[in-house]
Write a structure and sequence with these properties.
alpha/beta, Rossmann fold, six-stranded parallel β-sheet, globular
Length: 220
């Protein structure tokens, strides 16, 4: 069982709200604009640049870090963990499933996730690997990570869980993995309603459903 991070394990609402506050944009306007851009086929970065012309993530992140070195800024904390993570993870571990986290995240995310003691066997972070989803190399690294805890495991024995079709379902499926698409977050509901969502092995609403679905598959 391999899990994406943002909007799979971590509720990013407060992170986006902090971005809105930083630029003095009302939350409703910020979230509505970002959602509208994504719904029309744009990217998250496109949404930011519509709201903040000339926005560059690396530059703004560095400026924010210099201004608030001890602040949460665009990072998550324990309080951003979705409430279903710990109980669902406990149920899956009890069923004998190995749990891994692998997602597109900055280097700081690795220690933050480790400190949460989620009972996972390993954590893979894109900025540490130097490769990010949806590139095939990311999923090759994910398989290598799984092989360390379960030697000899094949891609077909892995379920990759994420909230996006483009970054999670399609590339993980191309790598030979099973996939579950979560209907939550800024992408999840929209992506679950699209035609390509049918390529996921399961479309589910939360991690409790993921655990139930996975355990039925194990039992079969």
């Amino acid at each position: 069982m391999v899990f994406d991070v943002g909007e799979t394990l971590i509720d990013e609402t407060r992170i986006f709200a902090r971005w809105a506050d930083r630029f003095g944009i009302p939350h409703m306007a910020f979230f509505g604009t970002i959602g509208g851009v994504i719904a029309s086929g744009g990217t998250l970065t496109d949404g930011f640049r519509l709201l903040v012309p000339g926005f560059d993530l690396a530059t703004e992140s560095a400026r924010w870090r210099a201004e608030e070195p001890d602040g949460d800024r665009e990072h998550f904390t324990e309080s951003d963990l979705y409430p279903d993570v710990r109980p669902a993870f406990a149920a899956m571990r009890e069923a004998g499933l190995d749990l891994i986290i692998a997602g597109n995240q900055p280097i700081e995310a690795g220690p933050a996730l480790s400190a949460m003691n989620l009972g996972v066997t390993s954590i893979g972070i894109s900025d540490e690997w130097g490769v990010a989803k949806p590139r095939p190399e990311f999923f090759e690294r994910t398989l290598e990570l799984a092989d360390k805890s379960t030697p000899g495991i094949t891609a077909g024995e892995i379920l990759y869980v994420g909230d996006r079709v483009d970054n999670d379902v399609l590339p993980a499926r191309a790598a030979g993995m099973n996939t579950a698409l979560l209907r939550r977050g800024i992408y999840g509901y929209r992506h679950a309603a699209g035609p390509e969502a049918a390529q996921a092995d399961a479309i589910l609403d939360d991690l409790h459903q993921v655990a139930e679905w996975a355990m039925v598959r194990v039992a079969d």
